[in-house]
């Protein structure tokens, strides 16, 4: 088990430092590192890991190889070079939140947190970092519950800075259209539609957003605090048919798939995901269940995307740390 968790950590570390992508429907060379590969919506398109000229002393250079997205994520995947190992963004590793929100906690356990549609919940709350998620959803009369997805996140840091990332409501999904909405301190961020395009505010230069494809994929970094791979995705007609999600002609249920790597959480951190990183965290989930579900939604509900009033909030608690801009310059 320890070996498996170490492998997952190594994968996400590589994933979260990549700031490049291949977007053509033809095979694309990728230098050493992780690449977000978007094969133009076509299956069986190959990406190539080429020789980058680097090798360890006494070891042969890795040979060029080709990779293709798996059937689990045929239109977008992550390619790790050298070796051409492929992964889906929502593969299980600590810090992931995907789909009808399925989280992978810091302890490596997978669980669902359904929350409630049209409400916000604190997913991470620490003395100097607070992250809320806005949930959208559809009611399923057969099961009697809401299907929910994370539509947007709001991040507070340095006491007063506010960053948000969301998936724009759309009737029909067009992968060539950018469905991401980004703002900082209540002003919308215009990020050029080019791979590698980067934005960073003068007021908080440690924060940056970088495109990993021309549309719908970014890496968000708050240096020394977290890195986040984020994708705006729809619910497809096939998914809706299989799971009875209820996609309609006027709403494709655009939402975010997220992969966090946290670097500076305290041992007092809380929230749906945050608590699983505590050294004293003891999971109450039935991990043997087909769908382990975290309850207690009332402990995490917030009054807004940037509110810090959930019952388990830690943000700005006195006596824990001084929260200043200096940390983020």
Task: Give an overview of the whole structure.
This protein has 329 residues and is mainly β. It is 6% helix and 34% strand. A hairpin with a 3-residue loop joins strand 13 and strand 14. Strands 10-9-8-21-20-19-18-17 form an 8-stranded antiparallel sheet, with helices on one face. It has a 7-stranded antiparallel sheet with strand order 16-15-14-13-12-11-22, with no helix packed on it. The protein is built from 2 helices and 22 strands. It has helices spanning 2-15, 237-243; strands at residues 21-22, 28-30, 33-37, 46-49, 65-68, 77-81, 85-87, 96-98, 102-104, 110-112, 119-126, 129-140, 145-157, 161-167, 180-184, 187-188, 198-199, 207-211, 217-222, 226-233, 255-262, 301-302.
Task: Using the CA coordinates, give the radius of gyration.
Answer: 20 Å
Runs in which pLDDT lies below 50 for 5 or more consecutive residues are 1-32, 319-324
Instruction: Spell out the helices and strands N to C.
Output: HEEEEEEEEEEEEEEEEEEEEHEE
Average pLDDT? 80
Strand composition percent? 25-35%
What is the total tally of β strands? 22
């Amino acid at each position: 088990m320890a070996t498996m968790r170490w492998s997952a950590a190594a994968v996400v570390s590589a994933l979260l430092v990549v700031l490049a992508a291949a977007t053509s429907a033809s095979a694309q060379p990728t230098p050493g590192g992780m690449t977000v590969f978007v094969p133009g919506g076509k299956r069986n398109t190959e990406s190539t890991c080429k020789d980058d000229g680097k090798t360890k002393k006494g070891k042969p250079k890795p040979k060029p190889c080709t990779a293709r997205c798996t059937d689990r994520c045929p239109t977008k995947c992550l390619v790790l070079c050298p070796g051409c190992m492929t992964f889906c963004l929502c593969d299980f590793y600590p810090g992931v939140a995907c789909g009808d929100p399925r989280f992978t906690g810091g302890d490596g356990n997978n669980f669902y947190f359904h929350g409630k549609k049209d409400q916000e919940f604190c997913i991470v709350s620490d003395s100097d970092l607070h992250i809320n998620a806005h949930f959208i959803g559809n009611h399923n009369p057969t099961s009697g519950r809401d299907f929910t997805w994370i539509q947007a996140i709001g991040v507070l840091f340095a006491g007063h800075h506010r960053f948000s990332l969301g998936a724009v409501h759309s009737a029909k999904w067009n992968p060539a259209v950018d469905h991401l909405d980004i703002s900082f301190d209540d002003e919308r961020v215009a990020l050029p539609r080019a791979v590698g395009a980067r934005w960073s505010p003068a007021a908080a230069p440690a924060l940056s957003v970088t495109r990993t494809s021309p549309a719908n994929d970014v890496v968000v970094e708050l240096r020394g605090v977290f890195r986040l791979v984020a994708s705006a995705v729809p619910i497809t007609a096939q998914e809706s048919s299989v799971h009875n999600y209820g996609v309609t002609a006027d709403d494709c249920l655009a939402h975010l798939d997220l992969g966090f790597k946290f670097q500076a959480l305290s041992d007092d951190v809380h929230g749906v995901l945050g608590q699983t990183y505590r050294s004293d965290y003891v999971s109450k989930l039935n991990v043997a269940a087909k769908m382990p579900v975290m309850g207690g939604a009332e402990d995490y509900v917030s009054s807004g995307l940037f509110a810090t009033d959930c019952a388990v909030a830690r943000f700005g608690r006195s006596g824990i740390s001084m929260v200043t801009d200096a940390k983020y310059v």
